[in-house]
Predict the 3D structure of the following.
Amino acid sequence: MDPLDAVISEFERLVDEIVAKIGATTRPEVEFPSKFAFVTARLHKLRPSPEAVAETLRGRRFEYLANVRLENMYLNADVDVRRLAVALFDSVRSAGEKYGYSARCKVGRFLVEHTSANPLHPLHVGHGRNAVLGDSLVRLLRFCGNDVEVHFYVDDCGSQVMYAALGYEAVSEEVNKMVERGVKPDLAVGYVYSVATAIAEINRLKRLAEGQSDEKRREILAEIDEWMGVIKRHMDAEPELTNLLAERLGRRDLFTEAAELNRLYERGDLQARAKVRAVVDLVLKGQRATLERLGIAIDKWDYESELAVWSNKAVELVEELKRRWPSYIENKEGAVVFRADKFVEDFNLREELDLPKFIPPVTLTRSDGTTLYVTRDVAYALWQAQHAVDKVVRVISSEQTHEQAHVKIILYALGHKEEAKRIVHYSYEMVNMPGMKMSARRGQYVSLDEILDEAAERSAEMVKEKDRETAAVIGEKVGVGAVRYFYLSASPRKPIDFKWDVVLNMRSNSGPFLQYTYVRAASILEKAGEAPEAAPSVPDSLPPEERDLVVRLAMWPRVVASAVKDLRPDYISDYLNSLALLFNSYYEKYPVIKAEGDVRRFRLALVNVVRITMKNGLEILGVPVLSRM
């Protein structure tokens, strides 16, 4: 089901003949795509004589190759586009609506963990990149028939969650009323969390300021002013709720209360469990609604408390590490530290575990014996890797590069070597909002819901639809497509700036542009009034744009396979954008419906392949496929 298989195979057979003729023992790598020709082989190490190559080519008739030549020890060949077009239509006839699938892209079983946002506030613009990247990876792998299970890690331990729980307990009746009148639950809890955190920090800093020098006190007072600004911002947005929180929490030592609640929660105390889960599950309800709006489904929600803490797994792993490797364990003021840096160097693990250049030591437990995030994450990673999967793909920002390296190092040190190798840290960079500094603790962020709302509103204005309700429905889908494509339009390793003129660009490299291209291809076929032929005759002469379109469409299965191999959905977005640009340029120049005879039938069949390819690519990216715009 890959039209290029026959082309590449014919070229490889030719290279094999040249290798055999000169008595070489190894075949050079075949390069496709190549910057020198359609397909290339470097013969520099073999150094065949031009006469030997010429003799192999003399009188040779090729089925798919054209203009085969030796140039500066490169064996280069072009392709017979007419024969490639026949192979393209044969592949599409065989694959049908699944064109793009090939055996080489079905590679195994996967567990993909993505989003995993803290249950404290709405998903923000940064979480959006994580969620969309993860979901598109899942869609890509499933398109190829791979078994994939999708997990969301609920980080329900730690002092930040406890601030939200204490705040919610104080104003639960008011929060529930907000939710009843239509405020999203994650947004309501986000207000509570941010104000409670500010109150806790202000009271902690006031105590810290006592007995300090004048200079140090001024520094602390400046920090207090920053947190007072957080409360003022929330007072402007939700004055009643903020006043209640200030009144009911203002005189309490939330810093100490949160530490104690966290200790009780980690012990599994029933009252603490009820208090924390009440707020965590409320936030997850709102986050789940946002994910559903983006077309994202989660198979399993994994609670940190259940898998790593209440099970005692995190503590057991620390004790096992201390027992196995006492020479790499240090005690710093009661905290347990593992010298991961020394362990990596001594066992030469950098390449084996694909680790970053710098590895710091890692603290495993606090002085009070409670575990830290990385320790609990090791327990979770081990639980993940023990599933019957070939790879565990963890979509986590580049900010956690060292923490994720520590996870693999500790697993390796505990004897779980294969499990450590099975884990892939799928790293991605941040999303920047020009002119804004974001901090979730301070309530300074742009929520994903806000982005989606504005995208839908702007898109509805662009839609050529008089009925306002219909325009709103289409606008929502165009907006979702615009936002999803934006997150996938660049390499995950590159930071991206969120700009509306880029997100909603109708001329290139955007979700709406691709949606419009699909609608245009489908509309042409609908207006034609006849089903495209599965195997049309290929005209004797094809114009350059038509030749380019055939070649580009024939590359689709290999683009998919390459995206799966490298776990790069952005390969799909790059390909679809180039295909859309090529197709729109082609359509403007060459008539399809008004063409006649074999030319008309060929072009309709070609447009149908564009339609199928665009549809499958959009579905992999999670960009809604529309029937009209």
